[in-house]
Amino acid sequence: MMSHLDGNALAGVLSEVFTFDPTLARARCANCYSVDVLARAMVYVDGSAFVVRCASCDAVLATVMDGDGRRWVSLKGVSAIEIPR
């Protein structure tokens, strides 16, 4: 049986993953399965909120919102991200 660690075990690996320009990452839309770089997505800005939509089917890929001194990120519409190495 495999034992588990808490989320702090991700600190090293995630700090390596998120050191790139995220607009160069290729995201797969969970709705239409189209794969494209985030730079080609359609972004709608409303105050401190960003809504990122798939350029192929217009489904919501991600949302980014600032509030209460925090930044909230949802990637609910992305089924996978290919990260450049």
What does this structure look like?
It holds the Pfam family DUF6510. The protein is mostly beta strands. It has one domain. Helices cover 8% and strands 41% of the residues. It contains one helix and seven strands; from the N terminus they run αβββββββ. The protein has one helix spanning 11-17; strands at 26-29, 35-37, 42-46, 49-53, 60-67, 70-74, 78-82. The protein has a four-stranded antiparallel β-sheet with strand order 3-4-5-6, with no helix packed on it. It has a three-stranded antiparallel β-sheet with strand order 2-1-7, with no helix packed on it. It is globular and about 40 Å long. It starts with 10 loop residues before the first helix and ends with a strand. The model has no long low-confidence stretch (mean pLDDT 89).
User: What order do the helices and strands follow?
Assistant: HEEEEEEE
How would you describe the oligomerization state of the chains in this entry?
Answer: single chain
What are the low-pLDDT stretches, counting only 5+ consecutive residues below 50? none
Shape: globular
Percentage of helical residues?
under 10%
Tell me the β content: 35-45%
Structural class: mainly beta
> How widely separated are the two ends?
32 Å
Instruction: Kindly give the count of domains.
Output: 1
Number of strands: 7
Order of strands, widest sheet: 3-4-5-6
The pLDDT mean sits at: 89
Radius of gyration: 15 Å
Which terms would index this structure?
about 40% strand; three-stranded antiparallel β-sheet; about 80 residues; mainly beta; four-stranded antiparallel β-sheet
